[in-house]
Write a structure and sequence with these properties.
Strand order of the largest sheet: 1-5-6-9-14-15
Radius of gyration: 19 Å
Shape: globular
Largest sheet: 6 strands, antiparallel
CATH superfamily: ApbE-like domains
Mean pLDDT: 94
Order of helices and strands: EHHEHHEEHEEEEEEEEEEHHE
Distance between the termini: 26 Å
Number of helices: 7
Number of strands: 15
Low-confidence stretches: none
CATH class: Alpha Beta
Structural class: alpha+beta
CATH topology: T-fold
């Protein structure tokens, strides 16, 4: 998941807590092993190395591809799972390294979901193009872990993968789960949210950015230009029924730039936007 992952639980004993943690970890590793673009031998590696050949995928992968295709349509192309190749130009490590226009332009020839042929369960990418499910994978993993917990126990639990989280239900030993939203000072919360149901996800540039001539470029890239979204919020946090839903709305809002709040005002979910 590329981030710290944890389970908070009101289990009756350390042994019970360890068993629940193992359950969550098993599901997290299953999804990591299956969908990470950093690993070989999985379905993503098969797709990305197909060299233009059609690849038939399983039902779970097909559902994620359908979801990604829907997000691409809803965002007018701003959400695009083929845009991962832009990482070859951008490294958001807090430095002042900005890629040359020519480098970005060259990579844009490898970006564009509309250039792919997707007729479930068969996906065919143009030669040298790739997909990356990182934009939805972590939130999906959180929701899958919560489903596994609900199917196994009735103990209140909170699954947190890198700040994207969901709960099985309200805690019994306190009024609600207290969720801290990271502020300008890293590792310090400047907002507390009381969560009794559902999920929370955050998208922002607190840890992943570059800065040049006083301009801060966040890591959310518009795949239509190859450059970070202009006038983007510093962070957007959304509360929703599922982590996937919350993460989707946060990401789509970030991609709207200066219109993020207007977009979120039109949704039925609560949000917090920092600029």
């Amino acid at each position: 998941m590329g981030s710290p992952c944890e389970l908070l639980t009101e289990a009756a004993s350390a042994r019970d807590a360890e068993e629940l943690t193992a359950l969550v970890a098993t599901e997290a590793w299953r999804i990591e092993d299956k969908f990470s673009r950093y690993l070989g031998g999985n379905i993503i590696a098969e797709i990305n190395s197909a060299n233009g050949r059609p690849i038939e995928v399983d039902e779970e992968t097909a559902q994620l591809l359908d979801f990604a295709a829907t997000l691409h349509q809803l965002s007018d192309g701003a959400f695009d799972i083929t845009s991962g190749v832009l990482r070859r130009a951008w490294t958001f490590d807090g430095s002042d390294r900005i890629p040359a226009d020519e480098t970005v332009t060259e990579l844009l020839h490898l970006v564009g979901w509309k250039r792919c042929e997707w007729h479930a369960p068969v996906l065919q990418l143009p030669q040298n193009m790739e997909i990356d499910l990182g934009g939805i994978g972590k939130e999906y993993a959180v929701d899958r872990a919560v489903l596994e917990l609900r199917a196994s126990v009735a103990v209140p639990c909170l699954v947190n993968f890198g700040g994207d989280l969901a709960i099985t239900g309200p805690p019994q030993l306190r009024n609600a789960w207290s969720i801290g939203i990271e502020g300008i000072e890293l590792d310090a919360a400047d907002k507390l949210i009381e969560l009794r149901q559902g999920a929370i996800a955050t998208s922002g540039d607190a840890r992943r950015f570059v800065r040049r001539n006083g301009i801060r470029y966040g890591h959310v890239i518009d795949p239509r230009t190859g450059w970070p979204v202009s006038d983007a919020a510093s962070s957007i946090t959304v509360a929703a029924d599922t982590c996937t839903q919350a993460g989707t709305l946060a990401t789509l809002a970030m991609l709207r730039g200066r219109d993020a709040e207007r977009f979120l005002d039109g949704q039925a979910e609560q949000y917090w936007c920092r600029r």
